[in-house]
Design a protein that fits this description.
Elements lengths: L44 H4 L6 H12 L8 H7 L4 H14 L2 E7 L5 E7 L26 E9 L23 H9 L1 H4 L7 H16 L4 H9 L9 H11 L17 E3 L6 E3 L7 H4 L2
Parallel strand pairs: 2-3
Antiparallel strand pairs: 1-2, 4-5
Helix pairs in contact: 2-4, 3-4, 5-7, 7-9
């Protein structure tokens, strides 16, 4: 009997799960990285994985840090560059300012003018801004010369993370009357935007502000559009957002209708045919004298 011959090599033994050479995960993201040699920006995980910033704010911070020195980063410039509205971009800029990635400072030039410059920090700076402002705009000054906005980006040195600060909300107007209609309008907002589901305490706190809109002859549909249009995503504090919109977008009172002056018509005197002004025909002043 002849010896058995092998006609094919034996199969390779299957790899055991968890072996040192098996590093590819079975689920989740798989990174396929290529080395950048030009045209790249280094972003820290403290920004890319920030736990409190919205996705829009993180993306906007990455875009700002990738811009060259002196690039314009005003709200209108960014709104023209991206599909988001000016309101959402302004809210994202306020997030970055509160988190310490943006800082607005006023600089006095040699000619006496004051300009507002914007610093972009690749790490949050140590101290938060003196007073966060809403909406995002150049600060006002009550002494001449007036401040001129100049949204230019300027590089800054790294600094430790700041402490969070929240702006003090403006007091709501306290009108009288129409409170019931205002409360019903606020409670009905969740029919148009489910994220605006308010508690009874929130409705009671916001009712005077909406009543002020109604007292100024604002149509309820116009109020509803102002409060529900272009909501940020995600919306963490609906009552806080509504409070800001109610106070910031409050329309002025309607002007008092102008009454034209009464014009006395011209009459012809019955005696001398002289023209004079009087409400009814008759004699002029000279002919009425005894």
């Amino acid at each position: 009997m002849t010896a058995q011959q092998a006609i094919a090599p034996p199969c390779a033994p299957p790899g055991s799960p968890g072996a040192p050479h098996d590093v590819t995960p079975t689920s989740g993201v798989i990174h396929v990285n290529s080395r950048h040699t030009s045209g790249f920006t280094v972003i820290g995980n403290h920004l890319a994985q920030h736990g409190d910033l919205s996705l829009l704010a993180i993306g906007l911070a990455v875009h700002i840090q990738s811009l060259p020195e002196g690039a314009k980063i005003g709200v209108k410039v960014l709104a023209a560059r991206f599909p988001e509205s000016e309101m959402r971009i302004a809210a994202a800029l306020r997030e970055l300012e509160a988190a310490g990635y943006l800082c607005r400072i006023r600089v006095r030039l040699r000619d006496g003018r004051v300009r507002t410059r914007t610093e972009s920090h690749n790490r949050p700076y140590a101290a938060p801004p003196p007073a966060p402002r809403e909406p995002y705009a150049a600060p006002r000054t009550t002494t001449p010369p007036p401040a001129e906005p100049d949204d230019r980006i300027r590089a800054a040195a790294p600094a430790p993370p700041p402490r969070q600060q929240h702006p003090t909300p403006k007091p709501l107007p306290r009108p009288t009357g129409l409170h019931r209609s205002a409360a019903l309008l606020l409670a009905d907002l969740r029919r148009h935007a489910p994220v605006l589901t308010l508690s009874e305490a929130d409705v009671a706190a916001l009712t005077p502000g909406v009543a002020a809109w109604l007292e100024r002859d604002t149509h309820p549909d116009a109020i509803r559009r102002a409060l529900t249009t272009d909501l940020p995503v995600p919306l963490a504090h609906p009552a806080r957002l509504l409070r800001h919109r109610i106070t910031a977008l409050l329309p002025p009172p309607l002007p008092i209708p102008f009454a034209p002056p009464t014009v006395i018509p011209l009459q012809n005197c019955d005696d001398c045919n002289r023209a004079f002004r009087a409400p009814e025909p008759g004699q002029c002043r000279d002919c009425r004298r005894p």
